[in-house]
Amino acid sequence: MWLKPEEVLLKNALKLWLMERSNDYFVLQRRRGYGEEGGGGLTGLLVGTLDSVLDSTAKVAPFRILHQTPDSQVYLSIACGANREEITKHWDWLEQNIMKTLSVFDSNEDITNFVQGKIRGLIAEEGKHSFAKEDDPEKFREALLKFEKCFGLPEQEKLVTYYSCSYWKGRVPCQGWLYLSTNFLSFYSFLLGSEIKLIISWDAVSKLEKTSNVILTESIHVCSQGENHYFSMFLHINQTYLLMEQLANYAIKRLFDKETFDNDPFLDDPLQITKRGLENRAHSEQFNAFFRLPKEETLKEVHECFLWLPFSHFNTHGKMCISENYICFASQDGNLCSVIIPLREVLAIDKTNESSKSVIISIKGKTAFRFIEVKDFEQLVAKLRLKCGAASTQYHDISTEVPISSDSTDPSDNIEVRSLTCQRECSKTVNTEALMTVFHPQNLETLNTKMLKEKMKEQSWNILFAECGRGVSMFRTKKTRDLVVRGIPETLRGELWMLFSGAVNDMAANPGYYAEVVEQSLGTSNLATEEIERDLRRSLPEHPAFQSDTGISALRRVLTAYAYRNPKIGYCQAMNILTSVLLLYAKEEEAFWLLVAVCERMLPDYFNRRIIGALVDQAVFEELIRDHLPQLTEYMTDMTFFSSVSLSWFLTLFISVLPIESAVNVVDCFFYDGIKAILQLGLAILDYNLDKLLVCKDDAEAVTALNRFFDNVTNKDSPLPSSVQQGSNVSDEKSSHVRVDITDLIRESNEKYGGIRYEDIHSMRCRNRLYVIQTLEETTKQNVLRVVSQDVKLSLPELDELYVIFKKELFFSYYWCLSCPVLKHHDPSLPYLEQYQIDCQQFRALYHLLSPWAHSANRDSLALWTFRLLDENSDCLINFKEFSSAIAYTEVKSKDPSKGDELSEEELLYFSRLHVSKPANEKEAESVKNSPEKGKGKVDIQAYLSQWQDELFKKEENIKDLPRMNQSQFIQFSKTLYNLFHGDPEEESLYQAIAVVTSLLLRMEEVGRKLHSPTSSARGFSGAICASGESSEGKIESHLEKDPSSLREEPQWSFAFEQILASLLNEPALVRFFEKPIDVKAKLENAKTSQLSSRTKM
């Protein structure tokens, strides 16, 4: 590798380097201890240790080339090499291309300048095709070279970054280097002759966390396949941990969660992932989650500044965050104040004098925001003006499509006008009012105590709007949170849900979208629509809105439209309950966008087939219980109880367990605080019932206690009619339990557990996501092994090892073959056996690793024929059951001599099938191999059982039904056997045995033909075999292939399988060969250790 020329003082390096070659201008040196017998003694060990521990240019490679200036002690390092071959190539290039040119220069200075320029040019040329794109390219290139040299991974494996750290082997820390690449975590250490090399694939990581104890002050704990690894002594441990967390989750998404992966353009090309890119992505995700912005937004700039708060009359310090379509601000204490300014709302951007460095942003509605002490404020104003110009044009183009009446003076209404126009066009189908206003209109004449309290709440919000503004750009302060905790008034609930969830931005960016989707989805019929129809009447059935066609039809349209928009989620139970509540307080189109915000941003992966998001948040909840309620975890050691109880809490936001009038207050807090509100409330509920739970004898008693508690949660300020309220239906006489007001419960959850930070929840989600998905994968594996073990003659531990190898080979394709069509075939909704399938290329690689005949010359042909035999439905994919059956045929040998013939029969049956590749009709095709589990459609249970019974009791009949082996197939069959025997200790006797078998079979065929005709088509062939009596493979092959045209002219001869089997079993050498025992465990262990290196060679 060419290096950027740097000065090296040769005088101090002589003890570490030995000279191998030199000329007038260049010196080739070898690192002491490399290439010497015994490692170069103590000096070599010390040098090796230095190379591993120290971060210096000299330690990168064992060979280097220096450019020397005559009469000077200063040399320039210009190249290094990992081996002698690489460095010799560089040396030869210098001698052929540079040496002759240097003689024309007059001064040493000119020679040095020329060499430096040439080397820099070579590096620049290499850089065009290099993956190294980090802050310090030279240092990164050196690390990349050592990474490739130490671990031998394919060139496509992208090194993201590397760190110096210690790896704890027992109680001893080993100093070395940690390398983080797209698919692997790798560690290398060399200390005093002891080498440690560790490679862990990210997809095998089940736990990743920061830990600390007495010995390790702060370390990173990695658990992979049951083994624990600890890394410590990082310079920036938080940065390292964040990158490791991102890479692990990236791999998990790419391999196990294809639905999320396909929707994420960042994950498309792993070769483009860099450390800086991962850091930027993390910041963007945090930015979008905090401000509830669309997932497509990317954080572009962050500026520290002050924002003037007109209602408090002071400037608050914080950060201005700018993305493509939004300007946001959050104070240093996130709860104090935050603002979201969509660029579509901006009218003007101005700057004041240089002393205050102020930026003033004016928006629609006569509101202005003043940012002070903004660094580079003039450049920022220019950029924002450019952005707003583009944004204004975009939304102006949209609005001009809608005719605006002459009395419309407010430009902020343009988008709403178009949206209303689209709604009018579909007025026959889409409701434009919230169901609550239709079914429970407020009667101002009959104001009772509850209605007066409701009006007071509205007045409090109106005062807040007057101070902080109203709409998407309002100031969000601590007062806003306090009002949300008290409960949002009925009349404002829909508006504020839209605002706090960010759904208002989605709807503004997609005017008319909902009406179009409703029109397109009407009349569609699929599994999702069938499930929706089944659940419509189960959604808040006690509420009058959903006892009428108006509510049911609106619910049907919203759910069907969402299933049409996002077919990967489609419809999931619990979505109906949530949507019905949304429809009560929001207009139909708003309810649709609220559902989008919940399913796609606020509760990610909750409503997919495996509800991974809900399982992850349950694991987070369990972690919080351990931290905040330790006495409960000590008493209830089985944490699965909390998972079973809390699943409905998370999926329905407590709507399914709390009375509706109380549940809506929880939804208020959820839209303001996100999942944090649900976690806090869950902790508060368990804390409130702590004494009762600690005396429960079993889980059923604990569930009863919690259900009783939920029945007694009330909302004393709810203005809903008593006919609708669910909590009021429980009379005081029936229940002696104390009533709990939802407002008090929520306030208590905020006071006790409000210290839980968004960042901590995000980190816990990432950490537990690894565990949840690995647990699901383990469940899949156990189910596959349970099914396969019934039909395959391998033990469970052997099948377990084989499954790991099978799955790893599949993942290697995911790692480096981006265009591989198999990437499209992982679908967790499929039956367990069909979730992972390999193609022919992957089967070939595994066949080379596991087959006892992988050394034969035609191993690729054997692999291809075997794959075709297994691939019954011709989709070019086979599952683990089919794969393991093929391996079992070739690996398992009976230890009982009495079963020798039976096993040989199976094996030879397998070989005979390989050469009957294209059956003449369907009956023959069926006889080649029957597998009742291979069907891709619905399985007929009776037919399945019948076919299974036939397989068990009619083995002999199936063998007899095998088609006869014709002339060309028999020749190929014989060749295959010859190739198998090559290299065997009994090779000569095996060849002789095959010659005898062939001769015998042809004589039998001749006798058979004599009964029907006076001449035998096989006479000349058999005579040649008998006359030769030779065992040489080449000579017998020549007889087999001699004059094939003349054989075709005569009637074709063929053999039945029984004839072949009987002839082969007569030869002891052949029987010994096929009954030779194989150590399956050793074969699997060898395959595991060599799988990665064999893939690299391929």
Structural features, described:
The chain is α+β, with helices and mostly antiparallel strands and 1098 residues long. Helices cover 52% and strands 13% of the residues. It has 45 helices and 24 strands. Strands 17-18-19-13-14-15-16-20 form an 8-stranded antiparallel sheet. Strand 13 (301-309) and strand 14 form a beta hairpin. Helix 24 (660-673) packs across helix 25 and helix 38 packs antiparallel against helix 39 (987-1010). 37% of the residues are buried.
- Rounded average pLDDT: 79
| Biggest beta sheet attributes | 8 strands, antiparallel
State the total count of DSSP E strands. 24
Derived from helix and strand composition plus strand pairing, the structural class reads alpha+beta
Shape, principal axes of CA atoms: globular
Task: Kindly report the spatial arrangement of strands forming the biggest sheet.
Answer: 17-18-19-13-14-15-16-20
Distance between the first and last residues' Cα:
24 Å
Strand content: 5-15%
Q: What's the helix count? A: 45
Contiguous uncertain segments of 5+ residues: 55-59, 128-134, 392-427, 728-734, 893-905, 917-939, 1015-1049
Helix content: 40-55%
Rg calc: 37 Å
